[in-house]
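Shapes recur. Our protein:

. . .
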Amino acid sequence: MSLLLLLAACLLTCLGQVAQKYAVESWRGVDSTWAEKLRSPWLWLALFALGAGLLVWLLVLQRLPVGIAYPMLSLNFVVITLIARFVFREAVDGRHWFGVALVLGGVALLGQHT
């Protein structure tokens, strides 16, 4: 159950980050007021996802030591890198992919303790 909650926290925070990106992309090149920006559905999705992620994260911290749980959130870097590359078509160089591989290795090692 703890690992499912951890995965949910990770996915919700990643969804929030992606929604933030879509929100600011929708504002790019558009002359709009803050009131108009605040009506962005992407912004509201980001706020909801990040808020829900926070609540799930609190449940995770009740079940796992912070020394195990917090480093597992580094999976966010992996997920966001994949989204950046394949959804937003951003360039990701070899050093970045190597870092992703190191993160995955670290998470695999930590996962053996849960």
Notes: The chain has one domain: 2-111.
